[in-house]
Design brief:
About 30% of the residues lie in helices and about 15% in strands. The protein has helices at about 15-20, 45-50, 65-75, 90-95, 105-115, 130-135, 145-170, 195-220, 230, 250-260, 275-285; strands at about 5, 40-45, 80, 120-130, 175-180, 225, 240-245, 250, 260, 270, 340, 350, 355-360, 360-365. The strands form 5 sheets. It has a 5-stranded parallel sheet with strand order 3-2-4-5-6, with helices on both faces. The chain has a 3-stranded antiparallel sheet with strand order 1-13-12. Strands 7-8 form a two-stranded antiparallel sheet. A hairpin with a 5-residue loop joins strand 9 (about 260) and strand 10 (about 270). Helix 3 (about 65-75) packs across helix 11, helix 5 (about 105-115) runs parallel beside helix 7 (about 145-170) and helix 7 (about 145-170) runs parallel beside helix 8.
Length: about 375
C-alpha cells in the first residue's frame, strides 16, 4: 500500500481532495433486518471514509455517512454498505490490492456481490474515485506536472471509470439510483500565499474544470447522475469578492475552500464536517425519491442540522486506520498487508515560485513494526 501524494498547481486535480485517504471501514446499519431492508452502497477512497487531519483518522463525518443519515429519514429500513478504501485508484478499485474484502477480490467485486445478494433492494450507489491515478504518477518532486503523463493517465482513468460505472450500472436494477461526483479545487488555497500563489490558483482552475467535464461525460454515458461538487464549492467563481477574517477580500471560491476544507488551516485538502455536509447535499440533490424500494413519499433530502453532525464532532465511533468493522456480512476493509500506509495527514504547503507543493508524511499501519 505505498501511497505518496504531491499536489502541484498545474495538476488537473481530477480528485485532488479525495485522493488523500486512509482505509475506510465498511459500516452497515444494524437497526433493521429481514426482507424489508433496502441498501445504500458507497464506493471510493478517502472522501468516502471521512478522514480528518485534526484527529488523524477516518471518521463517520464522511459525506457518505451524512447522506445515509438523510436518506434513512425517509427510508427507515435503509442499510449502509460502506466500501471506501484508502489510496484507491480506478485500477485498484477494479483489480484490488489496497484493502481486503472477504470473499471478494476488490472493492468493485465486493460491490457487485452486494448488488447480486440484495438484487432489487439496492436503492442507491454513490462513487468517488480517480484522484490517485494522476497524483501517484504525474507530479514531480518540485510540484511540476508532466503534461504527457497527465494526458495518458487521464485517458486510462476515464477508461477505468467507464468500466467501473458501466459494470455497476449493469448490475443494478431500474430502481437503483447511481451517482458519481465532480471535485472541488483545493489548490485555490494557494491564493493566500501572495502573488505567486494567486497565479497558481488561477492556473489550476481551467485544469480542474476540464477534468470535471471529462468525468461528467463518462458518468452520464454510463447512466450515472452527477453530483456537482465543484459547483457547490463555487470552484470557478473568482469574480465575487468575500471578506474573510485574517485575509481581507478574497474571491468566493477561495473563501469557500478555506471554510469547507482543511486546506487553509492544516494545509490538508480533505473536507471538514461542513464540507462533507455540502458534498452530501450535492449528492442528495440528484436522488429523487420515486421508484426507490422501501421509500416513503417525501421531498428530496437536503442538508439539515438534524441529519448531520456539527463541525468537528462525530455522530458515533470514529474509526482509525486499519480497524475495520463488518459490513452487512459482506466485506471488511483494512490494510492489504503490513506495508506502510502513506496518508493525507500532516500535509504541508511550500511556496516554490508560482508552485505550491503538497507532500504527505508517512503514516504506518498498526501492523508495521
Amino acid at each position: 500500500m505505498r501511497f505518496l501524494q504531491r499536489f502541484g498547481p498545474g495538476l488537473a486535480i481530477s480528485a485532488a481532495a479525495i485522493a488523500l485517504s486512509t482505509p475506510g471501514p465498511a459500516i452497515a446499519d444494524e437497526a433493521t433486518n429481514g426482507k424489508d431492508a433496502t441498501y445504500y452502497i458507497s464506493l471510493g477512497d478517502s472522501l468516502t471514509t471521512g478522514y480528518q487531519p485534526d484527529v488523524d483518522k477516518d471518521t463517520d463525518l464522511a459525506y457518505t455517512d451524512q447522506l445515509y443519515a438523510q436518506l434513512k429519514q425517509r427510508t427507515p429500513g435503509l442499510k449502509h454498505i460502506r466500501l471506501g478504501c484508502t489510496a484507491e485508484t480506478t485500477e485498484s478499485l477494479i483489480k484490488g490490492g489496497k484493502c481486503d474484502y472477504p470473499n471478494a477480490k476488490s472493492q468493485l467485486d465486493a460491490a457487485l456481490q452486494a448488488l447480486a445478494q440484495h438484487r432489487g433492494k439496492v436503492a442507491y450507489v454513490t462513487l468517488s474515485v480517480g484522484a490517485n491515478d494522476i497524483l501517484l504518477n504525474c507530479v514531480g518532486p518540485a510540484g511540476t506536472l508532466d503534461g504527457a503523463c497527465l494526458n495518458s493517465r487521464s485517458q486510462t482513468m476515464a477508461k477505468n471509470l467507464a468500466q467501473i460505472a458501466g459494470t455497476l450500472r449493469k448490475a443494478g436494477t431500474k430502481n437503483t439510483q447511481f451517482v458519481g461526483s465532480t471535485y472541488y479545487n483545493p489548490f485555490l488555497s494557494t491564493w493566500l500565499l501572495g502573488a505567486s500563489g494567486q497565479q497558481a490558483a488561477k492556473e489550476s482552475a481551467p485544469l480542474v474544470e476540464a477534468t470535471n467535464t471529462g468525468i461528467t461525460q463518462v458518468y452520464k454515458s454510463t447512466g450515472f447522475k452527477v453530483a456537482d461538487v465543484a459547483g457547490a464549492f463555487s470552484s470557478d467563481d473568482f469574480t465575487t469578492q468575500v471578506n474573510m477574517p485574517g485575509a481581507g477580500e478574497v474571491p468566493a471560491n477561495v473563501a469557500k475552500i478555506c471554510q469547507l476544507t482543511w486546506a487553509c488551516t492544516k494545509k490538508d485538502p480533505h473536507p471538514n464536517a461542513d464540507g462533507h455536509k455540502l458534498i452530501a447535499g450535492a449528492f442528495a440533490a440528484q436522488l429523487a425519491d420515486n421508484d426507490v424500494p422501501g421509500a416513503s413519499p417525501s421531498p428530496t433530502p437536503t442538508p439539515d442540522d438534524s441529519a448531520t453532525p456539527e463541525p468537528g464532532t462525530s455522530t458515533g465511533s470514529d474509526t482509525g486506520a486499519n480497524q475495520p468493522t463488518t459490513n452487512g456480512d459482506l466485506a471488511e476493509t483494512g490494510a492489504s498487508s503490513s506495508t506502510p500506509v502513506l496518508a493525507g495527514a500532516g500535509l504541508a504547503v511550500v511556496a516554490a515560485g508560482s508552485a505550491a507543493v503538497y507532500f504527505a508524511r508517512r503514516r504506518r499501519t498498526t501492523n508495521e513494526s
